[in-house]
Amino acid sequence: SGLLGEMTGRPVIDTDDMVAESAGVGIPEIFDKFGEEGFRQRETAECAKAGKKSGYIIATGGGCIKTPENYPLLHQNGFIVWIKRDIDLLPREGRPLSAKADLQKMYEERSPLYAKFADITADNNGAPETTVYEILEKIK
Fold it and tell me: What is the DSSP letter of 12?
């Protein structure tokens, strides 16, 4: 998302960063203190704030699609891109749910939800620039 922002000149905001900032603690601490449900409530509140902005690139956590209410919040001023990446390339550090999860099972559960949310998809298994160019081509 940072590279896409640089290449388009658009500001980038990350809903996970917004959640952490508003809570005053990091994402792992939010999960420890409030559980996934507490995190998801905070995530939806930040999606509502982010979705009202126009001209921004909004990065979300991978579990954002688990809350159906997030779709209209994020879709109101733009479109949603599902950036696909091979499971073995996904980061786990600092991600409470994927740190110890069976990522294949998680993908199988979330994949239909990603497909339902996404207006377009882009492959993110190569160079980041390639992914950005693919996104830019598809949104023309």
Answer: E
How big is the CA angle at 116 (ends 77 and 42), to the nearest 5 degrees? 60
Asked whether the predicted pLDDT for residue 98 surpasses 60, the reply is: no
Structure tokens at 72: 């209209």
**Residue burial 80-100, b: 16+ Cβ < 10 Å; e: rest:** bbbbeeeeeeeeeeebbbbee
Q: For residues 16 and 7, what is the distance between their CA atoms, to the nearest angstrom?
A: 22
Q: How far apart are CA 92 and CA 72, in angstroms?
A: 28
pTM of the complete model: 0.85
Pick the closest to residue 101 from 140, 62, 129, 55 (CA basis).
62
Per DSSP, the three-state class of 32 is helix
pLDDT at 10 over 90: yes
Q: Tokens 């420890």, residue?
A: 32
pLDDT at position 96, please? Answer: 59
Q: At what angle do helices 15-23 and 27-51 cross, to 10 degrees?
A: 120
